[in-house]
Amino acid sequence: MATLYHFPFCANSRFIRLVLAEMGLEPSLVEERPWDRRDAFLLINPAGTTPVLMEQGGLVVPGGGIIAEYLDETRGLGLTGRRLMPDHPAERVEVRRLMDWFLVKFDAEVTGYLVTEKIAKRFMTSATGGGPPDMNAIRAARTNVRYHLKYIGYLMARRRWIAGDHLTYADLAAAAHLSCVDYLGDVPWDEDETARDWYARVKSRPSFRALLADRVAGMPPAGHYADLDF
């Protein structure tokens, strides 16, 4: 059985949890707080970041995008009709482009700020960066999420799913990041109904159930977070 080192509100970790669930895989989950910089974890991944997938034979696969590619190469061909990466090269490029948009760009402009300031700092010591949230960072993230939401709405007005006709890694990457922001109540869903309807479709999938059950101690989610009809 593979092991996934993750932090429940690391959006890229959530992406891989969704991917594994869609593939019908149930890894052993080990919660890792990256800011603790545990020596044992650094030996596995010197970058100290999550997610990290460790195969039963000892192979270490670090990072959301790399794990997704690895899983497609090793398990994807067996998912007849349910493969999360298209067969056609041009379609694969579009999925990779949008994966990068959310795993890197959205993370840098939205999720990283909000999760760090509102969640991670609650558990960090002062030596590791803990303390009161930076409201300037939170305001920047709340501004940035609006244009990302509009972009999702733009894509969904032209496609059945974010990258084309079928559910792909792109949808799971986008939904994973939005799920963190949605937990905190910082997604202005009333500004784009098309994006909201797409997200409702994704979060209604069985693979999303574990994410919707995640909780931060002392910080309940937004009231609609686990509501599949929201």
Automatic annotation (TrEMBL):
CDD domains tied to this protein: GST_C_family, GST_N_family
One Pfam family cited in the UniProt record for this chain: GST_C_3
Domain GST N-terminal, first and last residues per copy: 1-79
GST C-terminal domain sequence ranges: 88-222
InterPro entries given in the database record: Glutathione-S-Trfase_C-like (IPR010987), Glutathione-S-Trfase_C_sf (IPR036282), Glutathione_S-Trfase (IPR040079), Glutathione_S-Trfase_N (IPR004045), GST_C (IPR004046), Thioredoxin-like_sf (IPR036249)
Domain of life according to the entry: Bacteria
Quaternary assembly: Homodimer.
Protein name according to UniProt: FtsZ-localized protein A
Taxonomic source organism: Methylobacterium cerastii
UniProt gene name: fzlA
